[in-house]
C-alpha cells in the first residue's frame, strides 16, 4: 500500500520547487533492473497439465503416448504483459499534462496586472497547484492499489459508492472527449494556416481536409496502440517540441526583438506594461487574479489516465510499483511546472498587459522562429492526442460495461475507428467549443484533480482498505475537497463571463 501520505506531500512540494531538466536526465530515471531491463518485459504464465493428460499417465504405455503427443503438438505461446519503464512513463506523463493550454498562461497574468511584479504570486500559485495536482495523481494510484481496480470508475465504486460510479466515468469521458475534439480543431486551424501561403487547393490545404488527412494518416495509427510503452518515443518528440517553444519564448524575451524594430511593428499588438507601486502580493487584489487561478486549477490535468499509468508501469525487482509511481509523478509534474513557469514568465515579460489568449498569436507572422513554434505546437498536440484518446477509450469501455469490454477485446480497431469518427465529425462541424469546453473543464477537471482522489482515499481508509495515512496526510485530503469545489465554482463562473 502507499503509506505515509504526509511524507508524500512534503516530498512532492520539495521536489517541485527544486527539480530541473538535469534531474530528469540524471537523477530520477534509473535504469531498469535486471529483472525487467529494456523498454518492456514479459511474465510467461506457467503451463498447467490438463485433467485428461494426468489421467493418461496411469500406465507406462499411456505415458509414452502422452509424451509423443506432447512432442507432436506445439505448446501454446505464453501470455505476456507489456510494461512501460519509469523513463517512458515520465515522458508520457509530461506530454499528457503539457499541451496548448500552457500558451494561455501569460494572458492569465495579464488579466490581473501589467507589472512584472505579478509574476511572483503567479509562479508561486503555479507551483502550489502543481503540488496538489501531483498529490491527487498519487492518491488515485493508491486507491487503485488498495482496491485492485484499474479504472477511475472502478476505484470510485469500491470506495465511495457503486451507485454513483457513473459520475467519475462521465467526468473522465467528458474531459478526454472534449480534449480530443479540441486537439482536432486546433490542428485543423493551425496546419491549414501554415499551408495557406503555399497556394495549394482547398481540397488539400483546407481545414476540413487537414483534419481528415491527419486523422487517417497520423492520429489513427497512434491511437490504435494499446500500450503506453510504444508511445514514449512519440512523447519524447512532443516534449522536445514543448522545449523548443519554451526556448523560443525565452529567446524573444531576452533578445528584445519585440521591444522595438521590424518585428515589433509587425506584431498584432505592442508590448504594454503598467507600473505597480504596491508589493508583489498586492497585485493579487485585482479581481482578474481569479482568471489565472481558473486556468491553473486544471492546467495539470492528467488524472483520468492515472489508473492507466499505474497499471502499465513496470514494477521493481520486488514486484512493487508504489515507489516508482511516486517518483514518476514527481518528475512528471515537476517538469510540467517548469515548462509552464518558463512560458508564462517569458511571454508576459515580452508583451505584458498585451498578452493574448494564445501567446503565439502575439508574435509577428514574419518571425521565422514563431513559424517554427507554431509547427512545434502542432507536433506537441499530435503526440499528446493518443494519450488523451487512450483515456477516452478506456472510459467508454467502463461506461458501456460488458458490451464495451467485448468490443474492445474482439474488435479493438473497430472501436478505435468508431470513437475517432465521432470525434472527427464533431471537430469538422464546430469552429469553437468556447463556453462549453471551458465550463466542462472547470467543473469536471477540478472534480477529477482534487475532489475525487481525496474522497476515494478518505472512504478507503474508513472502509479499512489498506493502512491509514498520517495526520498531515488526512488533513490535506480533507482540505482538498472544499478547495477543489471552490476552484470548480470559480472556473465555472469565469467561463460564463
Key words describing this protein structure:
mainly alpha; 497 residues
Brief account:
This protein is mostly helical and 497 residues long.
Describe, in plain words, how this protein is organized in 3D.
It is a single chain. The protein has helices at 5-18, 21-27, 51-55, 60-72, 86-97, 105-110, 119-147, 152-159, 166-195, 202-205, 207-223, 232-255, 262-266, 289-297, 306-312, 322-351, 368-410, 412-429, 434-462, 471-496. The chain has 20 helices and no strands. It starts with a helix and ends with a helix. The longest helix has 43 residues, at 368-410. The radius of gyration is 25 Å and the shape is globular. With 497 residues, the chain is mainly α.
| Poorly predicted parts | 9-79
Task: Indicate the structural class.
Answer: mainly alpha
- Give the end-to-end Cα distance, rounded to a whole number of Å: 44 Å
What letter string, H or E per element, gives the SSE order? Answer: HHHHHHHHHHHHHHHHHHHH
Output the radius of gyration.
25 Å
Number of helical runs?
Answer: 20
Strand content: under 5%
Average pLDDT score: 81
Total number of strands = 0
Q: Write down the overall geometry.
A: globular
Kindly state the percentage of residues in helix.
55-70%
The main β sheet shows up as: none
Amino acid at each position: 500500500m502507499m503509506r505515509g501520505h504526509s511524507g508524500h506531500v512534503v516530498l512532492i512540494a520539495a521536489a517541485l520547487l527544486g527539480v530541473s531538466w538535469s534531474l530528469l536526465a540524471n537523477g530520477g530515471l534509473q535504469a531498469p533492473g535486471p529483472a525487467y531491463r529494456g523498454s518492456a518485459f514479459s511474465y510467461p504464465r506457467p503451463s498447467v497439465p490438463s485433467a485428461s493428460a494426468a489421467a493418461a499417465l496411469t500406465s507406462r504405455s499411456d505415458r509414452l503416448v502422452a509424451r509423443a503427443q506432447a512432442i507432436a503438438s506445439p505448446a501454446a505461446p505464453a501470455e505476456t504483459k507489456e510494461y512501460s519503464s519509469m523513463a517512458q512513463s515520465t515522458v508520457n506523463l509530461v506530454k499528457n499534462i503539457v499541451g496548448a493550454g500552457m500558451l494561455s498562461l501569460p494572458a492569465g497574468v495579464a488579466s490581473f496586472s501589467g507589472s512584472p511584479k505579478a509574476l511572483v504570486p503567479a509562479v508561486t500559485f503555479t507551483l502550489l497547484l502543481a503540488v496538489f495536482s501531483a498529490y491527487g495523481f498519487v492518491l488515485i494510484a493508491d486507491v487503485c492499489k488498495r482496491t485492485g481496480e484499474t479504472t477511475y470508475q472502478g476505484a470510485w465504486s469500491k470506495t465511495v459508492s457503486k451507485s454513483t460510479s457513473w459520475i467519475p466515468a462521465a467526468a473522465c469521458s467528458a474531459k478526454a472527449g472534449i480534449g480530443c475534439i479540441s486537439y482536432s480543431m486546433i490542428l485543423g486551424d493551425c496546419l491549414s494556416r501554415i499551408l495557406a501561403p503555399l497556394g495549394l487547393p482547398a481540397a488539400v490545404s483546407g481545414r476540413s481536409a487537414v483534419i481528415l488527412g491527419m486523422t487517417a494518416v497520423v492520429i489513427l495509427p497512434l491511437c490504435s496502440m494499446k500500450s503506453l510503452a510504444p508511445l514514449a518515443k512519440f512523447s519524447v518528440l512532443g516534449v522536445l517540441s514543448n522545449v523548443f517553444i519554451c526556448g523560443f519564448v525565452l529567446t524573444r524575451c531576452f533578445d528584445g526583438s519585440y521591444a522595438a524594430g521590424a518585428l515589433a511593428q509587425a506584431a498584432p499588438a505592442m508590448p504594454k506594461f503598467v507600473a505597480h507601486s504596491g508589493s508583489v502580493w498586492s497585485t493579487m487584489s485585482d479581481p482578474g487574479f481569479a482568471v489565472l487561478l481558473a486556468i491553473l486549477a486544471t492546467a495539470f490535468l492528467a488524472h483520468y489516465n492515472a489508473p492507466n499509468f499505474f497499471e502499465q508501469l513496470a514494477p521493481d525487482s520486488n514486484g512493487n510499483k508504489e515507489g516508482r509511481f511516486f517518483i514518476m509523478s514527481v518528475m512528471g509534474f515537476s517538469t510540467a511546472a517548469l515548462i509552464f513557469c518558463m512560458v508564462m514568465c517569458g511571454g508576459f515579460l515580452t508583451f505584458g498587459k498585451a498578452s493574448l489568449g494564445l501567446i503565439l498569436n502575439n508574435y509577428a507572422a514574419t518571425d521565422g522562429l514563431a513559424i517554427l513554434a507554431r509547427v512545434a505546437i502542432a507536433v506537441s498536440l499530435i503526440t499528446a492526442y493518443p494519450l488523451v484518446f487512450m483515456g477516452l477509450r478506456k472510459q467508454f469501455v467502463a461506461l458501456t460495461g460488458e458490451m464495451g469490454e467485448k468490443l474492445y477485446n474482439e474488435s479493438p480497431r473497430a472501436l478505435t475507428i468508431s470513437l475517432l469518427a465521432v470525434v472527427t465529425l464533431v471537430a469538422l462541424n464546430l469552429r469553437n467549443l468556447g463556453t462549453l469546453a471551458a465550463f466542462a473543464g472547470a467543473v469536471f477537471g477540478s472534480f477529477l484533480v482534487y475532489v475525487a482522489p481525496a474522497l476515494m482515499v478518505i472512504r478507503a481508509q474508513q472502509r479499512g482498505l489498506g493502512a491509514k495515512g498520517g495526520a498531515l496526510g488526512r488533513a490535506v485530503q480533507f482540505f482538498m475537497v472544499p478547495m477543489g469545489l471552490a476552484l470548480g465554482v470559480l472556473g465555472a463562473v469565469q467561463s460564463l463571463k
